[in-house]
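Progress report, Aim 2. The chain analyzed during this reporting quarter is listed below.
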Amino acid sequence: MEFRRMKMKKQLLGMLICGFVPCLSAKEFSPEDISFFTKEVRPLLEENCFRCHGGKDSKGHAKVKSGFQMISRKGIIIGGDHGSAFNEAEPEKSLILHVISYEDENLEMPPKGKLSEEARGVLADWVKRGMPWTPEDADFLVEVEEDDKSITTINDFSKSRWSYKPMARPDVPVVGNTEWKAPIDAFIYDGVNKMGLKPNAPASRAELIRRAYYNLTGLSPSLAEVQEFENDKSPDAWEKVIDRLLASPAYGEKWARHWLDLVRYAETNGFERDSDKPFVWRYRDYVIKALNEDKPYTQFLTEQLAGDELAKPTFDSMSATAYHHLMQWDDEPADRKQAYYDILDDNVRTTTEVVLGMTVGCARCHDHKGDPISQKDYYSFMSFFRGIVPFSRGKGPVEKMVFEGVDDKHEVTMEAHRRHIENLKKEQAKIEKQLLTSLGKGTVGKDGASVEPVRWLVSDARTTTPQEWHYSTRAVDGWSEVGFRAENHQWKKGKAGFGTKGPKMIVHTKWNTPELWLQTSFLLEEIPKRLNLSLHHDEDVEIFVNGQPVIKRKGFRDDYDDFAADKRFLDALQVGRNVIAAHVTQTSGGQFFDFGAGISSGKSLSLEKVLKSKEGAKAEKDLVNRWKRLKNEIRKKEADPPKRGVEIMTARETGKDLPPTYVHIRGSANAEDKEKEVTPRIPGIFGGEELKAEAPENGRNSSGRRTALAKWISRDDNPRTARVMMNRVWQHHFGRGICRSSNDFGFLGEDPTHPELLDWLATEFVAQGWSLKKMHKLIMMSRTFQMSSKGNPDALAKDPDNNSFWRFDMRRLTAEEVRDSILAVTGTLNRKMGGPGVFVPLPEEVLATSSKKGGSWGRSSPEDEVRRTIYVKVKRSMVPPQLADLDVADTDTSCPVRFATTVPTQALGFLNSKFMNDQAKVFAERLRKEAGEDRKARVRLGLELALARPAKERELEYSHEFFDAMRDKHGLNEEEALDRFALLVLNLNEFIFLD
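Predicted structure tokens for the chain:
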């Protein structure tokens, strides 16, 4: 009651301030008005309103939604969460009329459907009359008692939920089966036994080692590794397998994927442009490295939340703080202030769901409807992140920093810088050549320097006065000789640049026949010592000087080749008239021919001087501007070489002193409630303690708030941190968590099947120094983990969902495991670790979905295309089909559970996709290479590589039948049938599923 009275006082105060609160007491109305209310209005209210706003539920308790009572005139005037529903000064503006109008999609009453026009008219007339009511009940209000079992307020009942209770180590059940006495096994056996069931027998050693490999590394063991384990009879054989896998770098790659799903890792921002997040891949590499090093989980969290605020930030801790920039980011929001708070909201939701198993984000607009989390709790938690500088255009929150032992690639960076400048200079020289050539003022010599020509003998199509040639589509005897006069043989005339239009082809004369013969001439007073030539052709060309063949080229050039005339060319020249003749052929596609020759003195020529001359005014402005831009860029690059250090996407704050944080009315950043300022504090259900922040003394301009939060989260007695993570570890070993709703441990989440076991694991996790590897080993050493997945009719009838864990659940491999396993089987998997995301080939149909042509999807080397899937670039708008088909995580929000779907596109993709068929051919080629020409040997090797076990005789027989069917029914030869067999093996259930 106290809470209700306080709330009512605040509502009344707010209405008084607004200045339009009507009198709450009953007033006198005419008999006619009372009759109108009784006959016309009350029936409408009873049918549509009373039930939820003052009526009683099935247990006889008052039901008052939104704190709004409509069973009396007084209740309507007082109003509820949205204020008074009656405006006496301007009745037509009353809230009650607004909500029944359905003009506001967020506030429509009654909720089941809009009232008829007649009914709305009756209520409008009633409100206009001043809202008359029968006097005897006009001031009646029901007593609303505070429910001592409310799940949305902090009380003994809400605090009694298992996940809100302090952690305590439970007693391990005493069980009669000596083989199940270890703590994990005892909890499971006790539950199974109480259901009248028995746990499954152990899995075979082959099943067990395959399970261990995939669960810890995401890859299959080889046949040799399976057989080694099967033959090892030592009592610690299984333990040795676990230790070896936990020490493998592949462990970090496998378990990093689980974490990246949770924190919605992607390398782009989403939305229309889906631009890149620069250097965000360092965060992915950090996660892999941290897991391989088995950093204490609390340190792992602290580095991500506040690694920049540590006393001595490291390369790892700074890389870890990219955690705060993994969300989607809109580069053109309609409301920038709201967009800023949307970013903070994403941080609040992700942190509370992933680390604490709490849906605090539900309290952004109002108090949580399913948990004791108030709107103040939400904004108090948000204030921990209030100072973070949000993502922005360009490099965004990227800093260049120096770390001992990390910047060992500086020389490589300098070399890349030098190469970049060289490339810019080459491009500048190329443009310079185009300009000088087009102006008839210069060309480029062998050394790439600009040189001054005396005059053009044969000007090519790039010049302002292209050479005129005679040409014919039919050959004539002696056509290349000096004495042949083309004009006397009705040859046509055309300007230099013969062919069809294409890139870098300046066409002045159209030519589209298979062959072309051309001739032009020039005069010489003396034989030059130097002659510069230019040639562009598609396809074959042969050039003659005075009847002598001097140049012969084949194929296609994509640009002009500028070169010096050789001795044979110069020797063919003569004083007087010289004839240049050319024969060009084309077999298919576009075609082009152009040739030029100029006499050069070899003296240096300044383009800048040419551009300032009269001729310079004729230069193409776009080329001149490009040349100038390159010149400036070269100057800047040379003046600013790379500084020592590495670039990192990291968190940084606006300062040590942050602006106040207020509760937002209905979550709107533009409606701050200035009377409700909040400070950084933990949710009230956990005590509501205000966490004092101290600015770090590490030189960074930061508030220290995130460090305070990280310290609270990392406390050994935190009721959620260890529980949530141990539930996730269990989930990824057994297919589901002890609590299935792994991001929500609240009242709206699932209840755990074994709460005592979860608490035991959580307390053990803390006792083991928050070591994930130790907990993996503890779980995998249990009988529970080692059970077979076989069915049992009695158990299936009593516990079809396996809630008691009477058996190990079979699962399909994840999208990443499938792709990596295929590459491993084909022998092409590249195990290189780290670095920027790699691009895998995508179908044109996928690229076409991008708003930007090509989708900004790059091309990696063939070696990088076959790296592990965790290194494939994660672009929010462009997911490789083979991953999307197999339920890869959605990166827009935290993905705690991947639900394995079964849809037709999966089968189509496995059989018909380019990726699968290409890999099948690679697999078949491996079988040819390693097994020779014997069919049986090929089949046996194929099955052993894919299934990590010896092939069975019946499987060999079926395979031979398959080959024969390919030959007899489909007309395929032996090698084509092997390609199909390889594809078949990659589609086997035993390859794709894990027992």
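The longest strand covers residues 592-604. Residues 1-26, 442-452 have pLDDT under 50 and may be disordered. These observations will guide the mutagenesis work planned for the next reporting period.
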